[in-house]
C-alpha cells in the first residue's frame, strides 16, 4: 500500500498525460502495477470498490432487461477454439496455452474472448424454438499476450472485470431489436458514469468474419488518443454456423440462430479517471463513489473530543440516509495532508468541522470537482449534500461532453487532418466507404487510422480521397 508522505500531486494531465496517469493511479490507490508479470496488476481495495460499483450498475441494467448472469470456465479446450477457424487464426498468437503433465500436453487456452467457451454450450442448450431467446452475460477476465506496450486498465494482458453479453435469437429481426436494446442500456450506463462517448459504425472488414455489423464506443483521452470503451456486435449467423447452433422451428425444420454479443471491461474506469481527473488526482463521479463524503475534523488543543463528537453526529445523520461517509480521525496527520490524500482519491465531498464551525452551529462542505466551499447550518446537511452530489454528477458529464464536442473537427484536406491531430483533436471527413480509400488514411502519419463512421448520415459531401458523393463521415485519429 502507499506510504504516507507529504507529496502533493500537481501534474498537468494534458501536457504530460503519461506521467499524470501513472501518478494518479498510485496516489489514489486504485491499483498496484508492480506485480512481476507484464500487463497484469493488483486491484487495491479502493479501486476494486469503485469497479464493483460500476459492475453493480451494469448488473441491474442487464438483469432488469431480462439478461441473466452466469459464469463460464477460463480454460477453453483446444477443440472448442478450433471450431471457428478464422477466430483461432486471429487469436492463436495472442493466446496463453495451458500446458500440463510430463509430456507438456496442451490442454487448452486461457480465454482471450468468450465465444469459444460459450457457444459450444449454446449448441447443447438450444434445441427448439422454445429455447429461444437465450440471453446471458458474465463478468470475468480475458487473457491476451499483448506485444504492444501495456498500460494499466488501458492495455493489459489480463483484461479484468470484463462483462460480455451473448444472446441467441430465432430471427434476424429479433437480433436487430436486441442490438437496439443493448445500445439503450449502454447509453444509460454512460450517463451514470458521467462519461461522454461517441458511437461509430465499424467498416465491414473490421467486424467479426461473417458478422452483420458492429457499433463501437470511443472516448478521447487528454493524450489525444482515442480508446474503445465497448462494442455491440450483430453476429448474424456467422458464429452459429461455425459452432453448429441450430433450433427446430414450428415448421419442424432446423435453422441457425441469430446472435448478438456486447462487451466492455475495466477500460471504463480508465476513461473515467482520465477524463475527469485534474492536477490533484482523480475525481470520482458520485454515482460510483464508494465513499461520497469524507469528514475531516479540524482539531484544536482542548477541543478534540467535542469536535470529534460533532463529526460522529454528522456521520450518523448521513448514514441514516444511506449516504456513504467516512471520518478521518487520524491524530498523527495534519488536516492539510488529509485534504491532499482525499483529493487524490477523488472523494466527491469533504466536510470540515472545526472550532469556529461549532461556534456557529455550522459545517463547511468542499466540492472536489470545483473546490468550491460552502458553509451551512448543520440542520441542512442532508439536503445540501444530496444537492451537491447531484450537481457534481451533472457538472462532470456536462463539462466532459463540452470537451469532447470541441475536440472533434470537420476537415476537407489531408493537411487539415494532420493539423487537427497535431492539435490533439479528432478529424472527421467525408468518405465513400470503399476499402481502397480507407487504406489511404493509414499512410497519413504514424499511428493515424480510421476509427469508424458517424451514425448520423444526414449531411452530404464528397469523399476526401476520391471525390465521390457520400453521406458517410469517418473519424480519424490515434488510438490505444
Automatic annotation (TrEMBL):
It is an enzyme of class 6 (ligase). Keywords: Aminoacyl-tRNA synthetase, ATP-binding, Cytoplasm, Ligase, Nucleotide-binding, Protein biosynthesis. It holds the Pfam family tRNA-synt_2b. One of its GO terms (cellular component) is aminoacyl-tRNA synthetase multienzyme complex. One of its GO terms (biological process) is prolyl-tRNA aminoacylation. PANTHER family: BIFUNCTIONAL GLUTAMATE_PROLINE--TRNA LIGASE, PROLYL-TRNA SYNTHETASE. Belongs to the class-II aminoacyl-tRNA synthetase family. ProS type 3 subfamily. This is Proline--tRNA ligase.
